[in-house]
Amino acid sequence: QVQLVESGGGTVQPGGSLELSCAPSGYIPGVWVMGWYRQDPGKPRDVVATITKSGGTNYADSVKGRFTISIDNDKNTVFLHMNSLKPDDTAVYFCYVQLAGTPRTDYWGQGTQVTVSS
């Protein structure tokens, strides 16, 4: 069974930076979109940033100008570089992959904790 393995989470002070990465532990055919979502307990999972294989990106308004998503197509690895972190960025961050084609197929990582506190 394919797993998405996230790394790079941790605890930083406000204004600090982190870089998350995510790569599949097995082969995933036809990757179309990769991205990052985040979730606090009792709240819905919200999109942070997505990127297509061709390089198109979308960001949540709350992270625009601070976070940068990128992709290594050869390795199917997605990165999220986070600058100027705020306490509100504290959440579990989940990697996700959407495959090309139909029916729609999504894969999710197990999540990595990001905590921003002084």
How would you characterize this protein structure?
The chain is mostly beta strands and 118 residues long. The chain has strands at residues 4-7, 10-12, 18-24, 31-39, 46-52, 57-59, 67-72, 77-82, 91-99, 106-108, 112-116. The strands form 2 sheets. Strands 2, 4, 5, 6, 9, 10 and 11 form a 7-stranded mixed β-sheet that branches. A 4-stranded antiparallel β-sheet has the order 1-3-8-7, with no helix packed on it. It is globular, with a radius of gyration of 14 Å. The mean pLDDT is 93.
Biggest beta-sheet profile: 7 strands, mixed
Mean pLDDT: 93
Shape: globular
Termini separation comes to 39 Å
Question: Which terms would index this structure?
Answer:
seven-stranded mixed β-sheet; four-stranded antiparallel β-sheet; 118 residues; 11 strands; mainly beta
